[in-house]
């Protein structure tokens, strides 16, 4: 496995793979890899001849008051995980290599303005821009994204459709800790007390899901149960809890599938997200 930091070094490798007729899978990440990322890499290795994992903390998707500087980084550990999983290349550029004096950005309306887009107004423009660039650099056959970031997956699928990228987008299930907490690089910010408090995300979603499975038809009633469960936790503060149409992320009043129930909760200073989908 090779660690590549320059676009001009990666391109000839991609070209030689293409000449051989090999298929390429891309797993975009911000590094500090865990079992959630590994599940994406495992699937990419199974379904493609060659796999590139991008490992890049993308500055354009962070607002100035967010955690770009402090976001955890550990390239050695990431390389060990990728190598063991059978990836062929880690692409780990510096911000300057990706942006230098760039003036072009990819933006999207509507579905980037709801859910996380309300609290993080520039976030999805940064995501769309960096993912477009990675698609153009790696030219993969397939790209793998986790349903942990359900809105991001929806945004990327729409971007691929709108901009005619000839790439199959593969959505992968959420990987959780044994007690239910969705795995996240940001979980490392939590102290032991906050780590316990963070269980209110998965617990509240579980309650909401059971209510829907039991026949509840009112979105307001389900959200009430979810918010009440989060509010029981003194260290938690809800950013949002919403149930939307999975197809276009528009709000629902009555429970109707396919739906996405998504929450973002501050545990102390750490903002965590979680969700469930009902198809
Ligand atoms: P990140 O490094 O947080 O930007 O995540 C890179 C990719 O890994 C995204 O497609 C995420 O949705 C996915 N991912 C992160 N955490 C998980 C998880 N717990 N389960 C499944 N996929 C995940």
CATH T-level topology of the largest domain: Rossmann fold
SSE sequence, one letter per element: EHEHEHEHHHEHEHHHEEE
Report the end-to-end length measured between terminal Cα atoms: 38 Å
What low-confidence regions span 5 or more consecutive residues with pLDDT below 50? none
Classify the secondary structure makeup into a structural class: alpha/beta
Mean pLDDT: 98
Q: At the fourth CATH level, what is the homologous superfamily of the largest domain?
A: HUPs
Tell me the quaternary state.
single chain
Query: How much of the sequence is in beta strands?
Result: 15-25%
Supply the CATH class of the largest domain: Alpha Beta
| Overall geometry | globular
Radius of gyration of CA atoms, rounded to a whole number: 19 Å
Molecules bound to protein: adenosine monophosphate
Number of strands: 9
Overall number of domains: 2
Number of helices: 10
Question: Main traits of this protein?
Answer:
three-stranded antiparallel sheet, Pantoate--beta-alanine Ligase, Chain: A,domain 2, Rossmann fold, 279 residues, binds adenosine monophosphate, alpha/beta, 9 strands, 2 domains
Question: How would you describe this structure to a colleague?
Answer:
By secondary structure, the protein is of the alpha/beta class. It has 2 domains: 171 residues, HUPs (Rossmann fold, 3-Layer(aba) Sandwich), CATH 3.40.50; 88 residues, Pantoate-beta-alanine ligase, C-terminal domain (Pantoate--beta-alanine Ligase, Chain: A,domain 2), CATH 3.30.1300. Strand 3, helix 3 and strand 4 form a beta-alpha-beta unit. It is globular, with a radius of gyration of 19 Å. It starts with a strand and ends with a strand. The relative contact order is 0.13. Adenosine monophosphate binds next to helix 2 and strand 5.
């Amino acid at each position: 496995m090779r660690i590549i930091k320059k676009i001009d070094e990666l391109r000839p490798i991609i070209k030689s793979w293409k000449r051989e007729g090999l298929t390429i899978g891309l797993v975009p990440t911000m590094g500090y890899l865990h079992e959630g990322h590994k599940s994406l890499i495992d699937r990419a290795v199974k379904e493609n001849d060659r796999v590139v994992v991008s490992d890049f903390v993308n500055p354009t998707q962070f607002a100035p008051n967010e955690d770009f500087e402090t976001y955890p980084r550990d390239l050695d550990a990431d390389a060990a995980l990728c190598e063991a999983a059978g990836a062929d290349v880690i692409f780990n550029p510096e911000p300057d290599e990706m942006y230098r004096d760039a003036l072009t950005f990819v933006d999207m309306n509507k579905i980037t303005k709801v859910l996380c887009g309300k609290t993080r107004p520039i976030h999805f423009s940064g995501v769309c821009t960096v993912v477009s660039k990675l698609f153009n650099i790696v030219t993969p056959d397939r790209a793998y994204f986790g349903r942990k970031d359900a809105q991001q997956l929806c945004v990327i699928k729409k971007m691929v459709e709108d901009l005619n990228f000839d790439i199959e987008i593969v959505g992968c299930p959420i990987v959780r800790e044994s007690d239910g907490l969705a795995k996240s690089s940001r979980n490392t910010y939590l102290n032991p007390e906050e780590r316990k408090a963070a269980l209110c995300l998965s617990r509240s979603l579980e309650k909401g899901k059971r209510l829907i499975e039991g026949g509840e038809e009112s979105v307001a009633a389900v959200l009430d149960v979810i918010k009440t469960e989060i509010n029981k936790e003194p260290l938690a503060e809800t950013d949002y809890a919403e149930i939307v149409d999975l197809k276009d992320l528009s709000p629902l009043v009555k429970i109707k599938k396919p739906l996405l129930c998504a929450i973002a909760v501050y545990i102390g200073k750490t903002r965590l997200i979680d969700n469930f989908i009902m198809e």
